[in-house]
Structures are given as structure tokens and as C-alpha cells.
Specification:
Blueprint: H1 4-35, E1 42-45, H2 50-62, E2 68-74, H3 82-92, E3 95-101, H4 103-116, H5 126-137, E4 142-144, H6 149-152, H7 157-169, H8 173-185, H9 196-206, H10 211-219, H11 227-230, H12 233-237, H13 245-253, H14 259-285, E5 290-292, H15 298-306, H16 320-326, H17 332-335, H18 346-349, H19 355-361, H20 364-370, H21 375-387, H22 393-416
Parallel strand pairs: 1-2, 1-4, 2-3, 4-5
């Protein structure tokens, strides 16, 4: 009883994590090796994050020739992560290629979305994904990426935020609504990537919802309490009031006990399948590029589902076991840098290069004629965004992409008939 037993227990826990990390390293290594088999030129989509860097690291171990890596940068510093991709490429000695996306280029590309996007999808990374696919296709026919790592190993900040939300909800309601939320909503608006004010406002806006609705409101566009303002009465009359009912039914069928694992299960079935993979597939197939995702090897998925949640998320540190597995193969600053995502400077672009398109495609006359969205509410979103009193870039981008899809697949198809 002199403290030796607790120390021993802590030691065993660390060893267990290390052993499982070694198992994961072997699984990922083999998953990448199998997907390098190709009779056409092949490369790696390298963002500089841990997932794509992991794929690149194992590719360099198994490839019979120097590996080609590809990344895309932005002219806006807070969105540009190309320096991390270059750091990984140098570390792994890959043949690295890089392109840049500007507001002008994005504006030119947006008109092409409607030609190949056969369903409305407002993921902001659609544009850079398409540009990257175009760029990569000049050099190779097959590309490996890191999709799936965030969902399998709890890499998204939302997973940690659920615990914070539980504590926040324990604060008396009069303090939350009378003090905290007014202070948060009064924060100056920034258009930087994942700025503090953006995350704080999203957090308090959705903290009151249940796990499923909160989770999707954090990374979605419109929250459910905006729907009555956004849609016309006719649309609301035809819409299921609970748009997340299928997600709730899904997570209730899982044996996951913690909110983190329940949301992982939801993300794997919905966000990963219906957004991430669909987005990559649409963008890549538009330019005849085949993409492969080693993290989605069934063995890796089964492994991720079998390990304790604290091997994935500890406090706000996600992908714990993946970082442990790759600590000797990738630079420390790559493993432990904050997650940024593949966002684009939509907030600024909607005030600049994309502003005329936004006003044209979301004009009050057009919306009233269409009969889907309340023109007055959309005009208010535009006005507040342009004046800087709020940042509605996700909402406006969603509406813009919907209209592009609508024109290409509903209006044009109807006219052809």
C-alpha cells in the first residue's frame, strides 16, 4: 500500500496504448501498401495534416519509386496550410507539387459546379477539392488521401466540445442567456479561418440542443431554429419537423455508451459517407481521377471501433492513438498542430469576388419567384454579412450552391423536357 500498485497500473495503461498503437501502425502500413498497386501513375493528396501525412509516410516505405505528393494553398494566410504539406514532403523526400487557389480562380470554378454536382452539397471544401483534383490529374490517374481518420479516431473538435456543452448547460440559465451569450454574440466578427468569435458563437447557439442536433448545428449551415425564418410556409408545410430523426434512430441502434462514440457512429454513416466521400468522388470523377482511402480499410475501421474512447480522445486532444503510432515517422509539429480543415475564405470572397454572383443568384425577385426561401430573411443575411455585423458565410454559401445546382439539374432538365 505504498503507492506501487497505482504506479504499476499507470505503467500498464501506457504500455497498452503503445501496443495498440503498434498494431494500428501495422494495419495502416498494410492498408496503404495494398492501395499502391496500380498500373497507372499514382500520387498522394497531402494537406499537411496527420491523416494525409500518415498515408504519405507509409507510401514512401512501400513505393518502388519516388512518391509524388500534391497540395493546394490559398492566398489568404489564415487558410493556407501549404507550408505544412511542404514540411512533410521535405521530411519524406517526396516529389512535391503545389497549386494556389485565389478568389479569382474560385469565381471561375464556381460556374462549373452545377455541371457535375448532381445533388446540392454546400461543403466549402468542394471548390479546393475540385481544383486539387484538376491539378493532380495533370500528373497522375490515381490518388490516395487521408479521408476517414477524423471520424474513426475522433479528430474533430466537436467531439471534445460535447463535454464542454454539458458543463455549460449546468450553468444557471439566467447567467447563460443574460450574461454569457450576449457577451459572446457581441464579439467582433472575424473572417479568419475558424476564428474564436465564429467558434464561440456557434457553440452557444447550439449548446441548448440535444447531442445529435447540437453536433450537426456546430458544423452545419442553418440551425433548426432558423428554418422557420428561412423557408416559405409552403415548404415548411411539406417538411418533416424533425430533420434529424433518422440520425437519432441510427445512434440509438448502436451499443456506444459515450456521446463521443455515438457521434462518431453518426458521422461515419452520415457526414463521412454523404459529405466527405461524396464530395471527393464527385470532384475527382469530374476530371477522371480515381481516389483511394486507406483509412477506410475494413480492418482499420474494426480496430478503431474496438479500442477505448480514451485512446482516441483525451481532453481536447484527439487521435491520441494515431499520434502515438506515428510519433517516430512524422515531425512533432505535424502531429500536434491544431486541426484546421480544408476550408476556403468564403466570408471574404462573398464580400469581394463572389459578391455580384451572390446578389444575382440570391436576388429577392428570384427567390420570390422560386417560392422556396423567404427573400426578406435572405436579404437580411446578406446585409449583415456585408456590413460585418455578423458572419453568415456558411448560410449564404449553402444557398448559393443550392441555386447553382437548382439551375443545372432542375431548371435546365425541365427546359430540355
Amino acid at each position: 500500500m505504498n503507492g506501487d500498485v497505482p504506479e504499476k497500473s499507470r505503467s500498464l495503461k501506457v504500455e497498452s496504448l503503445e501496443e495498440k498503437a503498434e498494431e494500428l501502425r501495422d494495419l495502416l502500413s498494410d492498408a496503404v501498401r495494398m492501395r499502391l498497386v496500380s498500373d497507372v501513375p499514382l500520387g498522394i493528396l497531402l494537406s499537411g495534416g496527420i491523416d494525409s501525412s500518415t498515408v504519405a509516410a507509409f507510401a514512401t516505405r512501400h513505393a518502388t519509386e519516388r512518391v509524388k505528393t500534391f497540395s493546394i494553398g490559398f492566398e489568404e494566410d489564415s487558410f493556407d496550410e501549404s507550408k505544412y504539406a511542404r514540411r512533410v514532403a521535405k521530411h519524406l523526400n517526396t516529389e512535391h507539387y503545389e497549386d494556389k487557389l485565389s478568389a479569382t480562380t474560385a469565381g471561375d470554378l464556381i460556374g462549373e459546379i452545377g455541371k457535375w454536382l448532381d445533388e446540392p452539397m454546400s461543403d466549402g471544401s468542394l471548390i479546393p477539392t475540385f481544383l486539387l483534383a484538376q491539378f493532380v490529374r495533370k500528373y497522375v490517374t490515381v490518388a490516395l488521401g487521408g479521408d476517414g481518420g477524423d471520424e474513426l479516431f475522433a479528430g474533430y473538435p466537436m467531439y471534445f466540445a460535447h463535454g464542454v456543452a454539458a458543463k455549460y448547460q449546468a450553468i444557471p440559465a439566467f447567467i447563460r442567456s443574460g450574461l454569457i451569450e450576449p457577451l459572446v454574440n457581441a464579439l467582433p466578427v472575424s473572417t479568419n479561418n475558424l476564428s474564436f468569435d465564429y467558434k464561440a458563437k456557434r457553440f452557444v447557439r447550439a449548446a441548448k440542443f440535444d447531442d445529435v442536433e447540437r453536433h450537426h448545428s456546430w458544423f452545419g449551415s442553418f440551425s433548426t431554429d432558423q428554418h422557420s425564418k428561412l423557408f416559405t410556409h409552403d415548404v415548411l408545410a411539406e417538411t418533416n419537423a424533425d430533420i434529424y430523426s433518422s440520425v437519432r434512430e441510427l445512434v440509438d441502434t448502436s451499443d456506444a455508451k459515450s456521446v463521443v462514440e455515438r457521434m462518431q457512429y453518426a458521422d461515419i454513416n452520415y457526414y463521412l459517407a454523404e459529405d466527405i466521400l461524396t464530395k471527393v468522388d464527385r470532384a475527382a470523377m469530374a476530371v477522371s481521377l480515381e481516389t483511394r482511402a486507406p483509412f477506410l480499410d475494413p480492418r482499420v475501421g474494426q480496430f478503431a471501433a474496438s479500442i477505448p474512447v480514451n485512446y482516441k480522445l483525451q481532453r481536447k486532444n484527439g487521435k491520441v492513438i494515431l499520434k502515438e503510432a506515428m510519433k517516430d515517422l512524422l515531425p512533432h509539429e505535424i502531429l500536434h498542430r491544431p486541426k484546421k480543415g480544408f476550408g476556403i475564405p468564403i466570408a471574404e470572397w462573398l464580400k469581394g469576388r463572389l459578391n455580384p454572383l451572390m446578389h444575382d443568384i440570391l436576388s429577392a425577385d428570384r427567390l420570390k419567384s422560386q417560392g422556396l426561401f423567404e427573400a426578406e430573411y435572405v436579404s437580411r443575411l446578406i446585409r449583415e454579412h456585408e456590413t460585418g455585423s455578423a458572419s453568415h458565410h456558411k448560410e449564404l454559401w449553402t444557398l448559393l450552391v443550392f441555386q447553382l445546382w437548382h439551375d443545372s439539374f432542375l431548371v435546365n432538365n425541365f427546359n430540355r423536357k
